[in-house]
Amino acid sequence: MLFILFVLSMLMVVVEANVFHFLIAWELMSLVSYFLVIFDTENKKSIEAGTIYIVMTHFGTALLIIAFLLMYRHSGSFDFNTIQASLSSMSSMQRNIIFLLLFFGFGTKAGIVPLHIWLPYAHPQAPSHISSVMSGVMIKTAIYGMIRFIIIMLGVSSLWWGELIMVFAAITCLVGVLYALMENDIKTVLAYSSVENIGIILLGIGSSMIFIKAGLPILATLSMCAALYHLVNHAVFKGLLFLGAGSVYRATGTRNLEKLGGLINKMPWTCSFFLIGSMAISALPPLNGFVSEWLLLIVLFLGAAALTGGLKLFICLAAAVLSMTGALAAACFVKAFGITFLARPRSPKAENAKESNFLMNFGMAILATLVVLLGLGGVYIIEVLVRVSQTILGSDIDPISINNIILRPQPAQNIYLSPLILAVLLFSFAALAYLLKRLFGKEKTVTAGTWDCGYYKLTSRNEYTGTGISKPLRIAFSFFLLPFRKIEKIRETRYFIKSFSYETHTTKVFREYLYKVFLGQMFRFARNMRGIQIGSIHIYLGYICLTIILLIVFVGRF
Amino acid sequence: MGKIIEFIVLLLLCPLIGGIITKIKNNLRFRRGPSIFQPYFNLIKYFSKDEVISDKASWIFKATPYIVFASTATALLLIPIVSLDNPLSLAGDFFAVIFLLGLGRFFLALAGIDPATTFGGMGTSREIFIASFVEPVTILAILVIALSAGTTNLNSIVSLLHMNPSTIMAMFSLIMIAIAETSRIPIDNQETHLELTMIHEAMLLEYSGKSLGLLEFSTYLKQLLFFSIIAIVFLPAFSGPVFFLLKILGLSVLVSIVELSLSKMRLFRVVDFLSFAGILSVMAIIALILGV
Amino acid sequence: MSLLSMLIKKDKILMAVTSFSYLASLIASVSLGNTFLSTKTPISLFNIFYLDSLSVFFVFTISVIVFAATLYSEGYIEKELSHNEFTQDKLKYYYLLLNLFVFAILLVTVVNNLGMMWVAIEITTLISAFLVGFHNTKNSIEAAWKYIIICSVGIILALLGTILFSYAFLFSVGTKSLNWTDLIAVASKLDPNLVKIAFIFVMVGYGTKAGLAPMHTWLPDAHSQALSPISGLLSGVLLKTSIYAILRYTMIANRCLGISFSSHLFLLFGLLSMALAAGLILVQRDLKRLLAYSSIEHVGIIVFGLGIGGPLGLYGALLHIFNHAVTKSFLFFGAGNLVNTYGSHNIRNMKGALKVIPFTGGMVLIGIFALAGFPPFSIFYSEIMILMSTFNQGRFILGALFSIFVTIVFGAIIFYFSQIIFGEKPKNLQVVREPLIGKLSFLFLLVFIIFAGFMTPNLINGLILSIIEALKG
Amino acid sequence: MELFVIFGLVLSTFALVFSKRLSALIGNFALQSFFLSLLSFTEAIKGNNLELYVVAMLLLVLKVLVIPRILQNMVKEMQVNENLGFFLNPQLSLLVAAILLYLSWVFSGVVFANQDNLVKIYGTVSFLMISLGLFLMVFRMKALAQVVGLLAMENGVFLLASSVSGGMPFLVEMAIFFDIFVGVVILGVFVYRINKLFVGIDVNKLNRLRG
């Protein structure tokens, strides 16, 4: 019921052609999703998450409202087209302000760092299918908003807009994926990786804005197309992953990686779907994530080739950030998939997990096939998206030439990609490898216990944990993650330690040093303000005297 | 057709490089060392043996050797070594090569975790750690080359590229990357199986027999891949089989000298090593911008 | 009509008759409004009573709230009786006071003579003081005392202002009169300096009663201590009547001094109130106190809107008067039920209202989102109108401040109420059944909360438009 | 004659501020109201109109006789300690009163510019009474002191109304008197309750509701 309303509201957001209605649909969406977040009202955490979510999103909406009202002030109308028509005559100062308002307003919903704070709370709390929709679609409505209002209606009027967006996008990518690596709650990992992917999409959009200003319409269209393509892809594989996480949670009753493991034998289907999802999200050929990130990379390269001066370097660094994000994402999902599904079960819960029912698997199967198709047949999707981005940017130059399976980004350049051929090659070489094996006689395998260095009882406690796997990165990035550890020892005697527990956590910089501080200041201020309401009637009467006197003294002022 | 033959030749030749490097190292140490054909003997030995597979391991463990081999071989196939009109450049470009290597790495890392051993996990953790620094640096270096060639299509790179300061810097960073990727000192050490130091070997620890052979083989392929990339970039004017072989030999000498003259670093020093490579390529880009 | 219901002795019938009479008054006001809309002429009865669009608008608002309040208090009293906090005679006493109170309020809005208006408002203070101190506990007595003293002081200042107005009239015309109609007629000829000072006195005086910072100090105490139906009336109606009074004088002042003077004062007080409420609402423990502070904030918003002016701003402000009246009394009723159920005002002690007292819980949930200004509820519309006209006049800083305060209050309200409404149900409480009659009042108000926004009733719409005409001067 | 009365008014107001005990306070208030009624009698005689006579009579009866009596009785019955708590001691209060006198003179000069001196004086006195009433309410602890302060303020307003703007309409006047009366009664009731609940009528004890 709520779910349907949710989907409806999102549709409304996308189809409205009137700012006021858009606003109402937007708020409706926030409201409904809020109720979905606090779906299980018994749980304290979900209430907290809901509160953070609704407050943050309302903050964003406030910014949007101001921006819209500024637009209205200038155009005197709420209709998209009239506004668009009239905005051309707006002073650049106002444009910049409106742009900032819109960017941060929508950014709150999209979850750009440091406004992402609500996302890792809200998404894991909702039921899994909801979180898949939230991550997959809802935060994309914010991207829609940015494209619609900033690029189409406002029109890119200065270079630094694009640069600003790209800077924030880069930060968002890295921070998102790093936090994703550090988390051990599987759904939180996915939520953070949504943040990262939003960053990637914004990289595309930002670069496209830069190219518009730099007078490279072809590249602009191309990067817009790449962004849209990644948007679609992310929707698909993130949905897939959330569903997978959901069925894992349902089977084992825990979301903590350290308690999972060995599910590959218990729930093979879920496992393989999840594997496909993780391969796609870590941009492995020939799946869809690979195609979109490759396209984005190529666009950045072409941009760097076309531009000169500082921008060249800027774009190159952006490309480096992008690839680093990709590598970290791969690392993250090696951890997520490996710890969840491979090796030994780490807890009885994981020990006796059951494969989830047919329908759930079917749902995942659909998405998994979509992932593969979007990868192999990416060419055709791109063909469509190119049209879309042409309409967005109002350019008619064809930035891409496609002969049946081969993608050729810019006619001038002879750069090609064909996921299909790559797939074929991969399979043929796998076959070749098999032949190579068979060349030396029939394959005979013996199964024995894992080599235990002679230590005869190897249990799941000897495995590498999720925390352990991400440790080197935690240390390497300790300047940002600020890890700290909780150690507690229970001693029997001074020398003999009975039990020893060791946890390590990372400090969420933005929460600790931005929001906590800000809220703390606000509450301290409020607490001081209680001094006004001190409870003494004499002082209250004093206020009245004072007011009167001041007003009469300054009567001339009014 | 020429490409196919060339590729098969390369397949046959690639273990030789490993042999040569070992040989050179030993000679520089004033030892006799094994013959340069030792890698072949090893491979044959592995392939003719049966496998022992952990009972904890899943199909991922079994599938990994194929996938790693396939990805590396495909990547190698995309690179025009001698014949400059590689028809397969339609399949993908320079970036695609990196992504392909990523595929292999991903599965190798998974295979490290799979058999529920401690060493495997250790290897995985270190591998992904290093990889997440190697990849951006590689991309940067490639960007330099591609920018100075004006394309990322490998054929055209070979034909269009010409030496300039930035490409030289890029080449140096590529060499450093190659050292990291082929798991050699100072990043990693192929010869040791001491759990404190091993990275790449740790992931292979549970493998044996044919699969191990396959993995070893793909390691050699990868080595060749990087060497040939460098060979393309270095003095692109002199191409053709002979020059290629000469360049490869020169590289092997260089690498073995490096391996001898340096000692293995602490894991976290690797970051500095790679970031130096990164800085090199950034400087190269700046040099490009300044048009030096 | 209220006199009539005072005479009745049997309490059951008393309740019925009371609410019925207010239903009648509601209908009367509606018909009045319609006739008024058809014939655009003010109704004046031999120079004592005078009804124009403003009066009718307020009469309508008042009778809506009062009708709901009487409905609610039937259910409420039921519960109180069952908790035997109430005795029969106490109940009659309650109804007597209630009716007098409402009578006085209605009187305020219909009299022509400003002196009489003053008297009526003072009477409302005196009576409602009893209703505040009804429970005769330490807290309630303290609240009542502060209420009555501070408001009387304020009111006396207002009287001073009134006198000065009449003096100005005398000075410029020569005859003496306190009739609003006479004053408005010659408003433009009055001595500006005098009017300025007089208006300041009136503003502060009635502002005290309207709960504008910094004269608001009595409000949180009084509203949190009063019986819940009364708190509803206090926030919903009483504050608005003093705003009505201020508006009356504003019309004169605007005609004499032009818009800017009054609007500056309004903006000053409005922003002060909003800022203060935004600050203090963050650190409240007491549910009804929280709501009281939000009343301060909303009065601030109304006055801010009046100050911003411009047709849109005025429309928003006037509509906000109605919306806030409805929503806030709605919430106070809900809060009353909550307080009764949990037997405590403290937010910390309330959990899982949705489980414990489902109907009210749901209603309050709707109510807070309405109060916080979420679409499609009515308050959203009035607030956005005010904000819109702020920006249209290019007063960006004011607009920014406005939205900051509103956002802070939003956060606070959601934060506290989500703790109350959700969460698991305490062990010691079992699910509460609620009397139908109480539910009715909620539903009755809910209709307005939902529909007053995007399909404003023609009556309200027309009235507001003509008021705006009058205010422009 | 008028000037004499006005002088009396000012004097009694000062006495109001200076008085240290409840009964004295109430007495002084009665005195002030008495002078006020005298004033309105003179007005009535001047304008000889019935309404003014009635008003003056009522003033005499209510504010000079009835209300002070009620308050005195309350003081007796509750036998609270007579001393009204000072936040500001009488001497300083007198100083303040003097300052206020000057200020209200200035203020009435502003308000009743281009008017003859008498009006200005009337204005001054009434403003003085109002401000001092407020002063009492702010700086005295006892609840009754606040009541008296309130009444004093009301007196001031009455003075202003009757002298400057020629009195209010009769009906309103009556209504206000009724209002005052009821108000005093209700306040009395509350004072009783306070006395019962808070042992004593020091208003500064009522500080439970804060924040």
Number of helices of chain B: 11
Task: State the helicity of chain B in percent bands.
Answer: over 70%
Structural class of chain B, by secondary structure, is mainly alpha
What is the string of helix and strand elements of chain A?
HHHHHHHHHHHHHHHHHEEHEHHHEEHH
Q: Please describe the biggest sheet of chain A, giving its number of strands, its sense, and whether it closes into a barrel.
A: 2 strands, antiparallel
Structural class of chain A: mainly alpha
Name the largest protein-protein interface in this structure. Answer: A-B, 89 and 87 residues
Separation, N- and C-terminal Cα atoms of chain A? 55 Å
Please give the number of β-strands of chain A. 5
Number of strands of chain B: 1
Q: Please count the helical segments of chain A.
A: 23
Report the uncertain regions of chain A: none
Percent of sequence in beta strands of chain B? under 5%
Shape of chain A: globular
Please report which band the strand proportion of chain A falls in: under 5%, 5-15%, 15-25%, 25-35%, 35-45% or over 45%.
5-15%
Using only C-alpha atoms, the radius of gyration of chain B works out to 19 Å
Keywords:
heterotetramer, B: 292 residues, mainly alpha, 11 helices, 71% helix, 1% strand, globular, C: 473 residues, two-stranded antiparallel ribbon, 19 helices, 2 strands, disordered N terminus
List the helices and strands and how they pair.
The complex is a heterotetramer of chains A (558), B (292), C (473) and D (211).
Chain B: H1 2-28, H2 38-48, E1 51-54, H3 59-78, H4 94-113, H5 118-149, H6 154-160, H7 165-181, H8 200-204, H9 209-233, H10 241-261, H11 269-290
Helix pairs in contact in B: 1-9, 1-10, 2-9, 3-4, 3-9, 4-5, 5-7, 5-11, 7-9, 7-11, 9-10
Chain C: H1 2-7, H2 11-38, E1 43-45, E2 49-51, H3 53-82, H4 88-110, H5 114-132, H6 138-173, H7 180-186, H8 192-210, H9 218-225, H10 228-257, H11 259-280, H12 287-308, H13 310-342, H14 353-356, H15 358-371, H16 378-392, H17 396-421, H18 436-454, H19 458-472
Helix pairs in contact in C: 2-3, 2-4, 3-4, 3-10, 3-13, 3-18, 3-19, 4-5, 4-10, 5-6, 5-10, 6-8, 6-9, 8-10, 9-10, 9-12, 10-11, 10-12, 10-13, 11-12, 11-17, 12-13, 12-16, 12-17, 13-15, 13-16, 13-18, 13-19, 15-17, 15-18, 16-17, 16-18
Chain D: H1 2-18, H2 22-47, H3 50-78, H4 90-111, H5 117-139, H6 143-163, H7 170-198
How would you sum up this structure, described in words?
The complex is a heterotetramer of chains A (about 550), B (about 290), C (about 475) and D (about 210). Chain A is mainly alpha-helical and about 550 residues long. Chain A contains 23 helices and five strands. Among the domains of chain A are: about 1-155, no CATH class; about 210-435, no CATH class. In chain A, helix 5 packs antiparallel against helix 7 (about 130-155) and helix 9 (about 185-215) runs antiparallel to helix 14 (about 310-340). Chain B has one domain (about 1-290). Chain B has eleven helices and one strand, in the order H-H-E-H-H-H-H-H-H-H-H-H. In chain B, helix 1 packs across helix 9 (about 210-235), helix 1 runs parallel beside helix 10 (about 240-260) and helix 5 (about 120-150) runs antiparallel to helix 7 (about 165-180). Chain B is globular, with a radius of gyration of 19 Å. With about 475 residues, chain C is mainly α. Chain C has one domain. Chain C has helices spanning about 1-5, 10-40, 55-80, 90-110, 115-130, 140-175, 180-185, 190-210, 220-225, 230-255, 260-280, 285-310, 310-340, 355, 360-370, 380-390, 395-420, 435-455, 460-470; strands at about 45, 50. In chain C, a hairpin with a 3-residue loop joins strand 1 (about 45) and strand 2. By secondary structure, chain D is mostly helical. Chain D has one domain. The termini of chain D are far apart. Chains A and B meet through helix 13, helix 14, helix 18, strand 3 and helix 20 of A and helix 2, strand 1, helix 3, helix 4 and helix 5 of B.
